[in-house]
Write a structure and sequence with these properties.
This protein is α+β, with helices and mostly antiparallel strands. It is built from 28 helices and 29 strands.
Length: 769
């Protein structure tokens, strides 16, 4: 996409009403401590669109003595600033940070206000595309009549009508380029929108001049078409980037707004989660999420810890157990003693991990963006040189002006601007047909670069749905008793047992569920219990840690009468997908929070040599960072909330549609089908898209190499220049459409030439520092 400047989304006027800078108090309240005397604040900079924008903002901030570091995130349009509370003993005014950004011409505000502005800009761009498209279409229809040989009076009438249609389109749709160009010039800079603004303006007024003097040619169609194609590229680019901005806010919504705090007298008082302090006693009801990290001092429950370990099976919690913020109490009530505040709890830590990983993610620097600082001066120089040279050569300054306009139009980076977004949109459409959603266009560029794939286990390589594996050997009478008890429990293993039983279960009139343990009921035969070994057979040992299966035990009066084993179901076509990835030369690994024997068995079944088990969210994120530090480009495929930091830290990420909301939001790709074959297909589509992007760059650059000399030599009128520019754009679009030829039968084929296998740690080595 061509470089844009801050003014693309509205230049900042510091004194303008409605765009006041944040106050010092607001800045301090939005900052968080990241070290002794160091604070971090995140500001939204909606106008950031390219590498030049990033460099401008970061350079302005780093020039301030109080700024330790500043990093602009292109996808979220956010700048994270780490600043010192004092400099040389003098307290820092944090408003200076926003003021420094404003001085460069970019609007900034506290990060929470960015999303609405982003949606508003998208709607404005879409409306501008519609207006310019309407104008271009109608002016082209009138131009056909002129080209067909209309007489002079009819020609003049059609030219005036065309001018009247083009004027509002120029003002309304062209305002993005005019605001951008003016804002850049006002702050002593230039950008690629400056020659565009000059070109379309001169083209329009030259056409007015020709119409007034009954000229044969006018260039209103060139003006409107130019706007139309440029706005298409800018809109597509904005939409693709806008899809990658909601993961962190979705994760933050897992934290409750408040909780009931029990005082020393036993009275309960509802407090916002920010007001809970270390040592407070907090009451948690069944169905509530834990607000802060703490220790259980009373109560028992089954705790959904998928945010911590990614496993669907709840964990039994009793007094003395540690619980993490964001986990969900399923079956019982608890009283916990807070061991951390909300800002320092587990959920906040995951959010900070995601912010750090997202802020540090490398972005593909497009050729057009890298060349932006050289493009505008070169175009201006060529246009001025053509104007002066032709004026001095033949003394016809009107002709010299037409040549200069033709140079400005023919060098418009429309084809270069469409080269990336049009391929991304076509590729995204092809992936959508295959049941794969892509949230960020640059993700396809990164996916094409990978040399390593890491999978989560539960919910990714498997479906996260336990299946009874030994039902045939269970005595039918015992099975009927267990099914009768399981019918009264919502535990996933109980539900799997109930679903596996096809007969008439034994009925119980009164069943009691013991949170974190199982269910029990009494009849004439005695006391039946169904659950874990510790609950049903108190004098028996816990489950063998080497056991690769989950188990549920049935007992009568404390004596075991039946044991049921469960395993997770492998995701459809997982083995074929893994084989395809291995054949393509990719290194494969498993990063799981499950027990080592279970992970080892699955790894052996799929032929994956590299695996690690019992990992925390931080461990997974560190494993991804370790791979990057060792030169690998890692694809992380995961589904749980606990995978979100790893998904954000990886070079690129995927998640199934069954993933937790935050997992889906953090991932770059989401596949809707159950089959794991979506992974190799997405890789193949992304690699083909990468090849088409490179081809488009060659086409766009080749066009300029041929067209610019023609315009400089005076062989191209503004109309011909506009047609040539539009033709180059159409060629780029047509080349991108070739991606639709990719068929689903290729999804398990070899997805590329075998890559040289780089060394990674052996199975007994660490994947993370």
């Amino acid at each position: 996409m061509s470089c844009c400047a801050a003014g693309t989304e509205g230049a900042l006027d510091i004194e303008r009403a409605g765009h006041a800078l944040p106050s010092a108090e607001e800045m301090k309240m939005s900052s968080r401590a990241v070290g002794p005397g160091l604070f971090q604040v995140d500001l939204s900079v909606p106008a950031v669109h390219c590498g030049t924008c990033i460099t401008t903002v970061e350079r302005a901030l780093k020039a301030l003595p109080e700024v330790e570091r500043a990093r602009v995130n292109l996808s979220t349009k956010r700048v994270s600033i780490v600043w010192h509370e004092t400099v040389d003993g003098i307290e820092t005014d944090p408003v200076r940070l926003a003021r420094a950004i404003a001085a460069t011409g970019y609007d900034s505000n506290l990060f929470t206000a960015a999303e609405e502005a982003s949606d508003a800009l998208r709607n404005q761009l879409i409306r501008a595309v519609a207006v310019s498209g309407f104008a271009a279409t109608n002016i082209m229809l009138l131009s056909v009549s002129v080209w067909s040989g209309a007489d002079a009076s009819t020609r003049d009438l059609f030219h005036w009508i065309s001018g009247l249609i083009a004027a509002p389109a120029l003002i309304y749709a062209g305002r993005f380029f005019y605001q951008s160009a003016w804002n850049a010039l006002k702050h002593g800079r230039t950008n690629m929108d400056v020659p565009i603004a000059i070109g379309i303006t001169l083209s329009y007024f030259a056409s007015i001049w020709e119409t007034i003097h009954h000229g044969e040619h006018a260039y209103f169609d060139a003006t409107a078409s130019l706007l139309f194609f440029l706005l298409i590229g800018r809109t597509l680019d904005h939409i693709m980037r806008d899809r990658a901005r909601s993961a962190i806010s979705g994760l933050a919504r897992l934290s409750p707004r408040g909780a009931m705090v029990i005082d020393a007298n036993g009275a309960r008082d509802y407090r916002p989660v920010e007001d809970i302090r270390v040592g407070d006693h907090v009451a948690i009801a069944a169905g509530d999420r834990i607000p802060v990290d703490g220790l259980v001092i009373a109560g028992e429950t089954d705790l959904d810890m998928s945010i911590v370990n990614g496993e669907s099976a709840p964990v039994s919690i009793r007094p003395g157990a540690a619980v993490q913020a964001g986990t969900l109490s399923l079956t019982g009530s608890l009283t916990i003693e807070a061991t951390a505040t909300a800002q320092n709890s587990f959920l906040s830590e995951i959010i900070h991990l995601m912010e750090a990983a997202e802020g540090g993610r490398a972005r593909y620097r497009r050729i057009a963006d890298r060349a932006a600082r050289f493009y505008s001066p070169a175009v201006h120089f060529l246009a001025i040189a053509a104007f002066v040279s032709w004026g001095l050569y033949d003394g016809d300054w009107k002709h010299a002006m037409m040549v200069a306009i033709a140079v400005l139009i023919i060098t418009c980076p429309c084809a270069l601007g469409l080269a990336v977004p049009v391929v991304q949109v076509v590729a995204a459409g092809r992936l959508f047909k295959a049941g794969i959603m892509v949230k960020d266009g640059s993700a396809m560029e990164r996916l094409a670069e990978i040399d390593m794939v890491a999978f989560d286990k539960t919910g990714t390589l498997t479906l996260g749905r336990p299946r009874l594996i030994d039902g045939n050997r269970i005595d039918p009478a015992v099975f009927a008793i267990a099914a009768g008890l399981a019918a009264h429990s919502r535990h996933p293993l109980s539900q799997a047992l109930w679903n596996a039983y096809g007969g008439q279960p034994l009925g119980f009139s009164s069943v009691r569920e013991v949170p974190g343990s199982g269910v029990e009921a009494r009849n004439t035969s005695g006391l039946y219990r169904l659950g874990n070994r510790r609950f049903v057979c108190a004098d028996m040992a816990e489950q063998d840690e080497a056991n690769v299966y989950s188990e549920v035990v049935l007992s009568l009066n404390g004596v075991e009468i039946g044991t049921f084993h469960f395993e997770d179901m492998l995701r459809p076509r997982a083995e074929a997908a893994i084989h395809s990835l291995k054949v393509s030369g990719l290194t494969l690994a498993i990063l799981s929070g499950d027990r080592a024997p279970v992970v080892a068995r699955l790894a052996a079944q799929l032929g994956i040599e590299r695996w690690r088990a019992e990992l925390s969210p931080r461990d997974k994120a560190e494993a991804c960072a370790f791979a990057a530090d060792n030169g690998h480009r890692l694809l992380m495929v995961g589904d749980g909330i606990n995978d979100a930091p790893a998904l954000a830290a990886a070079h690129v990420s995927m998640a199934p549609a069954t993933a937790a909301d935050v997992g889906r939001q953090a991932a770059d790709f989401v596949f809707m089908r159950d089959g794991l074959d979506a992974v190799p297909f997405a890789i193949e589509a992304s690699r083909r898209a990468g090849r088409l992007i490179r081809e488009n760059f060659v086409l766009a650059i080749g066009y300029n190499v041929i067209a610019v000399p023609i315009a400089l030599l005076g062989y191209a009128t503004p109309l011909i220049a506009s047609i040539a520019m539009s033709t180059s754009s159409l060629i780029v679009v047509a080349n991108a459409l070739r991606l639709n030829r990719l068929t689903m039968k290729a999804e398990l084929a070899v997805v590329g030439d075998t890559l040289a296998k780089a060394r990674i740690p052996a199975p007994n080595e660490r994947l993370a520092a």
